[in-house]
Design goal:
Elements lengths: L5 E5 L4 E7 L5 E8 L3 H6 L5 E5 L4 H10 L3 E5 L1 H4 L9 H12 L12 H32 L10 H11 L2 H5 L5 H31 L1 H6 L7 H10 L9 H8 L3 E3 L8 E4 L5 H21 L6 H8 L2 H22 L12
Parallel strand pairs: 1-4, 4-5
Antiparallel strand pairs: 1-2, 2-3, 6-7
């Protein structure tokens, strides 16, 4: 009797769809399942490969199915899309996931543990608070413009702006009905600043306690936030064969548009983990800014790049090199050693 070897599972909040196939890829069943019946259904199935799209809730269901003895693989949604036939619905999506999982060259996402997801949550929370702070600051500046006041940019000016809105000439010039609204937004900014400070302290504490984070902080441009984010979010370094694969996973390699044997490279692909990519670029930007002011070491790679390339391009190129270095340090479990500049 032919047994099911692969099940493609399309997940959602309440309604799921499972598509089973045998070793030859023939469809065995296509079944709609409710959330309450999902685990009971898989408990009755023989141990097999279960594939899901790497989306919201996928890691939770992957852990549940692994506990039942199934082999679970998560596929990036972009790699499933080419297998969707014509119209899109739950049954077609489940079939596409099942078919994609059977491809020998398919790439998969590592299943995260609850501890890994909890460790990454501090960065998601901080990002949310920083975005909200930026939104409120921009709202204050935008509303002040309507009354003829152009507020300076930058976080450093926000404290001065709050004082001017409270008792300064700006607050006295504003209409009576507008003052309470500006006061409310200023209070929201103060609360967010306090919460971001608490999160920064928590991230710094975790960086001191984690051996991997301490090792990563030896790389110029990587501080506690980036180091602990890499330790929490990035998959095991052994997942990648070389540093370039890790940089490609972050979206820091050039996008290829090559054909006919002619190589044509564009801007970075940006197809990867956006949080880590952004943090590495911010860190590289700080290094480039510092070295451009005091002068990069003579004969170094950075000196040569700054002499002939725009600074933003050098920043992204340095972020790419930092990704290679991160991978090497994680694989070799060593601290960073600065390269010796070439002799003149």
């Amino acid at each position: 009797m032919t047994e099911v070897t692969t099940i493609g599972l399309d997940i959602a909040k309440h309604v799921f769809h499972a598509h089973g196939a045998d070793g030859a890829g023939r469809a065995m069943f296509s079944r709609r399942l409710t959330r309450a019946k999902l685990l009971a259904f898989f408990a009755a199935q023989p141990r097999c490969l279960v594939a899901l799209e790497a989306c919201g809730g996928a890691h939770h269901w992957a852990r549940e199915l692994q506990a039942m003895g199934h082999e679970v693989r998560l596929i990036p949604p972009a790699y499933v899309k080419p297998f969707v036939k014509r119209h899109k619905n739950d049954a077609v999506d489940a079939e596409a996931i099942c078919e994609a999982a059977q491809r020998p060259s398919m790439r998969f996402v590592a299943v995260k543990t609850e501890a890994q997801q909890a460790a990454a949550l501090v960065f998601r929370t901080r990002d949310l608070a920083v975005k909200q702070r930026t939104q409120i600051a921009n709202a204050i500046r935008g509303h002040l413009t309507e009354y003829g006041w152009v507020a300076p940019k930058g976080a450093a000016s926000l404290a001065l702006l709050a004082d001017l809105l409270d008792d300064g000439e700006i607050g006295q010039a504003l209409p009576e009905a507008a003052r309470p609204m500006f006061a409310m937004m200023v209070d929201m900014l103060a609360q967010l600043d306090e919460r971001i400070g608490v999160l920064d302290k928590e991230i710094t504490r975790r960086a001191r306690e984690d051996e991997v984070a301490r090792r990563l902080m030896t790389i110029p441009g990587i501080g506690p936030i980036t180091a602990t984010a890499i330790a929490a979010i990035a998959p095991p370094a052994e997942t990648f064969d070389k540093g370039r694969d890790f940089a490609a996973w972050l979206g820091l390699v050039p996008k290829q548009m090559s054909t006919g044997g002619k190589q044509k490279l564009g801007a970075i692909s940006r197809m990867g983990e956006r949080t880590l990519r952004r943090l590495l670029i911010i860190g590289a930007s700080a290094v480039v800014l510092q070295e451009s002011k005091r002068g990069a070491p003579a004969g170094s790679w950075l000196e040569g790049m700054l002499a002939r390339k725009p600074r933003m391009l050098v920043t992204v190129a340095l972020a790419n090199k930092m990704a290679h270095t991160v991978w090497a340090l994680l694989v070799k479990q060593e601290d960073y050693r600065a390269p010796v500049p070439a002799a003149a």
